[in-house]
């Protein structure tokens, strides 16, 4: 009798063991951060949920990795310090890969490329050059590659830094800044918006591409995301999401 019960118990352990391992793997949680205000990469909907290219791509990669992923938002200029302080595991938030940032974090392969644009109020267009920019006040979002580009390309020009693109665009419309550099989405606006914003000059590539940022020690996690990213490109999902959300390009 005891021998029979022992065999049953052993059988249950053998069945439950592999199942428990799979279940534990599926329950691994990865916390992903972004600003929640950088469309079309990430934005906050009226109901408070996050949406955008970063969100859809992040969820797709997590599914491939069989991980449970949770998204959180963080103020942009402090997002790298928060990552290094273990507040979350990875930044997937339209972050440009630069040499300066690579001194603090490690990046995935670029998961998108995009361009920045100069914007002004319609009727106030001008030819962009170091000379014409001298008497202008330029608005940029603080802590971004756009800010670094302006400071390097137009030294000595008056620069205003803003915590968000919404605040930046608002001050352009009220005349506190003459020109802004940022992503294309805020310049599109809605039909009937006044005053209307328009792009001037050529698009600017301000980084090596858009990457996912990790703590320097998390090379294994970085490699997992790289592999999952490759899968989304191989199976056509990346292209589908890029078409859905707009500007991101390979």
On the 0 to 100 scale, the average pLDDT is 87
- Spans of at least 5 consecutive residues whose pLDDT stays below 50 are 5-25
Q: SS-based structural class?
A: alpha/beta
Q: Taking Cα atoms only, what radius of gyration do you get, to the nearest Å?
A: 23 Å
Strand tally, please? 13
Q: What does the largest sheet look like?
A: 5 strands, mixed
Distance separating the two termini: 66 Å
Cross-sheet strand order for the largest sheet: 5-1-6-13-7
Identify the overall geometry. globular
Total of helices: 10
Q: Strand share of the residues?
A: 15-25%
Helix content: 40-55%
In short:
This protein is an alpha/beta fold and 250 residues long.
What does this structure look like?
This protein is an alpha/beta fold and 250 residues long. It has helices spanning 2-26, 53-65, 79-84, 99-102, 130-133, 145-153, 165-174, 185-188, 219-234, 237-245; strands at 29-34, 37-38, 42-44, 50-51, 68-73, 90-96, 106-107, 116-121, 137-141, 158-162, 179-182, 197-204, 210-214. The strands form three sheets. The chain has a five-stranded mixed β-sheet with strand order 5-1-6-13-7. Strands 10-9-11-8-12 form a five-stranded mixed β-sheet, sandwiched between helices. Strand 9, helix 6 and strand 10 (158-162) form a beta-alpha-beta unit. Helix 2 crosses helix 9 and helix 2 packs antiparallel against helix 10. The longest helix is centred in the first third of the chain and has 25 residues, at 2-26. The radius of gyration is 23 Å and the shape is globular. The chain starts with a helix and ends in a 5-residue tail after the last helix. Residues 5-25 have low confidence and may be disordered.
């Amino acid at each position: 009798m005891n021998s029979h019960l022992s065999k049953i118990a052993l059988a249950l352990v053998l069945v439950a063991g592999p199942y428990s391992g799979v279940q534990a793997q599926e329950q691994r949680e990865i916390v992903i951060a972004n600003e929640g205000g950088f469309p079309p990469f990430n934005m906050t909907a009226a109901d408070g949920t996050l949406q955008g290219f970063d969100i859809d791509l992040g969820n797709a990669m997590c599914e491939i990795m069989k991980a449970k992923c949770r998204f959180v938002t963080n103020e942009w200029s402090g997002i790298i310090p928060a990552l290094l302080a273990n507040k979350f595991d990875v930044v997937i938030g339209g972050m440009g890969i630069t040499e300066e940032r690579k001194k603090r974090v490690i990046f995935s392969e670029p998961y998108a490329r995009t361009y920045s644009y100069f914007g002004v109020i319609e009727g106030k267009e001008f030819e962009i050059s170091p000379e014409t920019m001298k008497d202008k006040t330029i608005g940029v979002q603080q802590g971004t590659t756009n800010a670094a580009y302006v400071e390097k390309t137009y030294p000595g020009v008056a620069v205003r830094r803003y915590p968000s693109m919404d605040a930046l665009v608002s001050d352009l419309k009220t005349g506190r800044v003459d020109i802004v550099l940022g992503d294309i989405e805020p310049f599109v606006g809605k039909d009937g918006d006044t005053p209307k914003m328009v792009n001037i000059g050529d698009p600017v590539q301000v980084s090596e591409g858009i990457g996912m940022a990790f703590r320097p020690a998390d090379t294994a996690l970085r490699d997992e995301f790289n592999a999952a990213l490759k899968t989304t490109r191989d199976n056509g999902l990346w292209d589908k999401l890029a078409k859905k959300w707009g500007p991101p390009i390979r």
